[in-house]
Amino acid sequence: MSTTWPTQAELREELRSAEARDLRPSVDGGTIAAPAVRRRILLVTEGTYPYVMGGVSSWCDLLVNSLTEFDWQVMPIVAPQGRPPTFALPSHATEIGPVEVWSEEIPKTDHGARGDRRSGELLPAMLVRNLIGWEGSTDAVVAAWVWCRRHPGSVRRAFRSARGWEAFLEALGEVLDERIPEAGTPPALDLVEAATLYQTLYWIARTAAAPTPPSDVLHVTAAGWAAIPAVVHKALHGTPMVLTEHGVYVREAYLAAARNGDSPGSRFAATRLARGLARTAYANADVVSPVTDANAYWELGLGLDPNKILVLYNGLRPPAEPSPAPGTQTVVSVGRIDPLKDMHTMLRVAARTLTHLPSARFLHYGPVPRGEEAYHRSCLELHARLGLGERFTFMGPTADPTGVVRDCDVVLMTSISEGLPMAILEAMGQARPVVSTGVGGVPEVVRGCGMVCAPGDDYALSAAVAMLLRNPELAQRLGRRGHGRLGRLFNEDACIDGYRELLGVLAGEPDAHAVEHVVAAVGARA
Q1: Torsion angle of the four alpha carbons 436, 456, 296, 139, in this order, in degrees rounded to the nearest 10
Q2: The pLDDT of residue 106
Q3: Contact at 8 Å (CB) between 299 and 423?
Q4: CA pair distance 358, 452, nearest whole angstrom
Q5: Which H or E run contains 507?
């Protein structure tokens, strides 16, 4: 079937033509002047900064407040919540949006050119074929997203048309008929599962249609929904794009699908969609900066060009002299209440520890994200069944992670997926020993300053916690080692300097040779 989708070559030719006139094309088809002296960074977030407290948000806040030479434009992609931002943006940063997905608000359709009807009706089929299909074309995904940006008023009509639904079902059938040895046999999807996927693709198209402001560098904080507006912006304007992965997006989707009890069809749709979004983000990013070497290995396995990878560790500024532990047998954990944090294992660890040390106390600080209310209820039910009472307390969110860590003797983490968690860096900054699962970059960070156990092993985790509580001298020695290790390898200055050079070079000289130079130069010092 013939369509009017723009090709990547056509987009590049349009960009070259605009540059020849010393102008750049704007979202609405007009032109804008060359960038001002102060470079503009478009920071696209997904369910985190500035609305939700957490490790990724803390990292964003550190970057925005430290790199004051840039003008930051923060574009959050969030579910409707009606709550004010958790973080206050500094004077050199502004919020764009937010982009609300899964809202009940009908989009405004009185702006943007209308696409031709036939192309619009093929939009759902294009997305399912190339995002869900095992060997889908990332170029085709970008072309479809660019169409959405250019014709925002046509996206809803495309998904509401009978032909759009019919073309989607036809393309979905092709995907389900695929037989890829390494991918296994796709399960059948019932009508409800197909309709849910159709609705998800509609919101992806709506996200692609969201306008983005003129920018000099695009900085994306996850290889999923956050990459969508940035990928479109790059296709239209040639703006260089940096992707920082804190946790590997595809891996976390696989883990969530394995644990949430959904049907095979729902798990298939969720994991294939995560893979399709990540492949598109990797293909279009100029630099991918995982926060740990463990993430980089996953990214390589997913087909990322190794020449794009620049590992930049997270970092904190440790106090000059940490205060001694209180000696109250207090165990603190910090993180959102989410299946990836494996709160059920944490509760069992507490129960096992308390059988040997009844005077111990466990405090967990962290919010309940939107959509995880059922998981939170399951945690409260398990808490009651284990009879933990006030010996394990859910404290809610905290705006002072440093303070809550300072007031404990041991920091506990039971996650099944992490990148380089800020909670562990906070523990090292306060010279507190860590007991954690060995996921993501945790083993390379905690080496010599804590205990690492297998995910889900509540026996080993509780034994490690009890040993440190019973041996405060050992706990102090491990904490001191962590404090020194943080200062040498995971310090705030090294983190900020790495991003300062990376973003500065990309903003000033956005070409392949500059990218290769900064990846080599910064990587050699990391």
Answers
A1: -140
A2: 72
A3: no
A4: 23
A5: helix 492-508
Q: What angle do CA 418, 312, 454 make, to 5 degrees?
A: 25
N-term to C-term CA, the chain: 50
Length of the chain: 526
> Which regions of the chain are under pLDDT 50?
1-6, 8, 11-12, 15-16, 18-35, 110, 112, 526
Question: Vertex 500, ends 499 and 502: CA angle to 5°?
Answer: 60
H-type alpha helices, 287-372: 293-301, 343-356
Residue for token digits 């041991």?
410
Yes or no: say if 67 and 45 are a contact pair by the CB < 8 Å rule: no
Phi, psi of 429 (to 5 degrees): -65, -30
Inter-residue contact 291 to 245 (CB < 8 Å): yes
Displacement of CA 83 from its chain's centroid (Å):
21
Q: What's the predicted TM-score (pTM) here?
A: 0.80
Q: Give residue 24's pLDDT.
A: 41
Q: How many CA atoms lie within 13 A of 323 on its CB side?
A: 11
Q: Is 455 in contact with 443 (CB distance < 8 Å)? A: no
Q: How many CB atoms lie within 10 A of CB 180?
A: 11
How far is the C-alpha of 493 from the C-alpha of 68, rounded, in Å? Answer: 14
Which is it for the CA torsion 153, 154, 158, 163, positive or negative?
positive
- d(CA 150, CA 183) in angstroms, rounded, equals 35
Question: Measured between alpha carbons, how far is 144 from 53 in angstroms, rounded to an integer?
Answer: 34
Whether the link from the prior residue into 50 is cis, omega within 30° of 0, is yes
Taking the C-alpha atoms of residue 362 and residue 364, their distance in angstroms, rounded to an integer, is 7
Alpha-carbon distance of 127 to 159, in angstroms, equals 11
For residue range 244-272, list pLDDT tens digits in order. 999 899 999 998 888 777 899 999 999 99
Distance CA 20, CA 14 (A): 10
Count the Cβ atoms, other than its own, within 10 Å of residue 504: 16
Query: How many CB atoms are located within 10 Å of the residue 90 CB?
Result: 13
For 308-337, b/e burial (b = at least 16 CB within 10 A) is bbbbbbbbbebeeebeebeeebbbbbbbbb
DSSP states of 280-295 as a string? Answer: HHHHH-SEE--SSHHH
Asked if residues 369 and 436 have their Cβ atoms less than 8 Å apart, the reply is no
In the block, which residue shows the tokens 């940096």?
Answer: 242
pLDDT given for residue 422 in this prediction: 86
Cα 125 to Cα 118: distance, rounded to the nearest angstrom: 12
